[in-house]
């Protein structure tokens, strides 16, 4: 089957929407891209056939109402490769050499240095955007570094930082110190404990970090009195 340049351009738009917004249904993609559901499904079928996208069942409890639940379409590792620079082999070789010659301390020092942009930019972005929550500021900082980050509110729990793309996911699969340093830096700039729930490096569709709300002053006062 031959494809026109417009077909390929639209298919790239579909793939990029999944990259930026995370696993999506065909109906959601159609709304976001102003395409017909039939057109989106045609491109999704080809992306699945090419091995760049996979269909997933929605998580239990996430589906409400009657009828068959809509499939979610997520990028595969191959699909992510089309958006990433081909640096993985060289980066892995360099980190393996660093691990062999410098050990764990050298690896952690490198990981800390790599995520130093978080602490270096957080304050300035917060000052420039006082209307944003700290989590939204983090999303802005990460997006500027190529992570396609966003924030999701968690009712009665806080917020969730979602990174739809990770520039170092392939390397972090072998060297989790990169993810650990990132989480630690997030915790430091927010001044509270955060919990990493999922990572692209370990096969999840999105890197997610739970950012719990700080206890209110009233709640803390009651605790101190009791």
UniProtKB/TrEMBL annotation:
InterPro entries given in the database record: ArsR-like_HTH, Carb_Metab_HTH_regulators, WH-like_DNA-bd_sf, WH_DNA-bd_sf
Database matches in CDD domains: HTH_ARSR
Matching Gene3D superfamilies: Winged helix-like DNA-binding domain superfamily/Winged helix DNA-binding domain
Pfam family, one: HTH_20
Residues forming coiled coils: none
Protein name per its UniProtKB record: Unannotated protein
Native source species: freshwater metagenome
